[in-house]
């Protein structure tokens, strides 16, 4: 009978030695890549130059099946950098579109995001058509039970209904990037809005990565959301002269009447580093033309 505890102990040690070596904590999620840095490689098939530049993707345009795991904005960058990256939503052609800012670390990231909205786009973003409708003076009051309450200045509502809705959308889409915020209440107006209330202010294709002006290296990570035909999102990379140096496509998690996430990698070949453009678009099922094109100006690293 005295041998029973010893046998049980030996059995426990044996089982522990057979445990899955992949188990354990994954640690904190990294912050979003800062503008001016190369995008992280994607472990997914990529397309090489020489594939069709329009119409239905040809046999060389490789489909990416990488899981959609975009980094969370508004979280600190890796230890030691002392910076935080936040996502900002600006207005362009009647819709809201995202970009990013990396700033010194602060505990008040929501206040930082509101200040950056009021400061407006960079020169590169303005050249790409981005603008802000949010005036200075929008103050964060509190965040409680998933609702961020903001106090806008009196001039906030002094505009037409369409502009006011876009203005509110900028604030809502920016603040709801944070995990503690699901909706935004605008003090003094009785208006409470979530992202679902403003989904119609998104373009058919939204690109969250890369950001305007970002320095990228191949394979270029391209991510965002889309509501396109058969969920197929096409991508091409152009050099500074407009020459196509890389093409590919990926598939959103939903399409043809619903919005889904997409994420893929596209390789390119370029002898000399310089400006370029990442184009994300839908191929028209009617005539094969490129539609809903989103052009993101970037800085392309030279490839070997």
From TrEMBL:
InterPro entries, per database record: GerMN, Gmad2_Ig-like_dom
Domain of life, source organism: Bacteria
PROSITE patterns xrefs: PROKAR_LIPOPROTEIN (PS51257)
Region (Disordered): 29-81
Keywords: Signal
Signal peptide (from-to): 1-21
GerMN domain: residues covered: 110-197
Pfam families reported for this sequence: Germane, Gmad2
Bias type Low complexity, positions: 29-51
Protein name as annotated: GerMN domain-containing protein
Organism: Micromonospora purpureochromogenes
């Amino acid at each position: 009978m005295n041998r029973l505890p010893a046998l049980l102990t030996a059995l426990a040690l044996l089982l522990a030695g057979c445990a899955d070596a992949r188990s354990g904590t994954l640690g904190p999620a990294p912050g979003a890549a800062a503008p001016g840095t190369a995008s992280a490689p994607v472990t997914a098939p990529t397309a090489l130059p020489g594939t069709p530049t329009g119409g239905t993707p040809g046999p060389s345009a490789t489909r990416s099946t990488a899981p959609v795991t975009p980094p969370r904005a508004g979280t600190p960058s890796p230890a030691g950098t002392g910076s935080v990256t936040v996502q900002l939503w600006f207005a362009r052609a009647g819709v809201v579109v995202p970009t990013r800012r990396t700033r010194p670390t602060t505990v008040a990231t929501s206040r930082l995001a509101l200040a950056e909205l009021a400061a407006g786009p960079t020169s590169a973003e303005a050249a790409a058509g981005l603008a802000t409708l949010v005036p200075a003076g929008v103050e964060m009051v509190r965040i409680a039970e998933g609702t961020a309450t903001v106090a806008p200045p009196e001039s906030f509502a002094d505009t037409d209904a369409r502009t006011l809705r876009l203005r509110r959308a900028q604030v809502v889409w920016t603040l709801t990037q944070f995990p503690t915020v699901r909706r935004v209440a605008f003090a003094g107006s009785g208006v409470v809005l979530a992202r679902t209330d403003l989904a119609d202010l998104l373009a058919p294709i939204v690109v969250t990565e890369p950001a305007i002006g970002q320095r990228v290296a191949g394979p270029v990570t391209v991510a965002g959301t889309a509501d396109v035909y058969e969920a197929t999102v096409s991508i091409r990379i152009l050099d500074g002269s407009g020459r196509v140096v890389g093409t590919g496509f990926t598939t959103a998690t939903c399409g043809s009447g619903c919005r889904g996430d997409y994420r893929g990698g596209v390789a390119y070949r370029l002898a000399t580093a310089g400006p370029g453009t990442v184009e994300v678009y839908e191929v028209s099922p009617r005539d094969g033309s490129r539609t809903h094109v989103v052009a993101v100006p970037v800085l392309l690293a030279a490839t070997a």
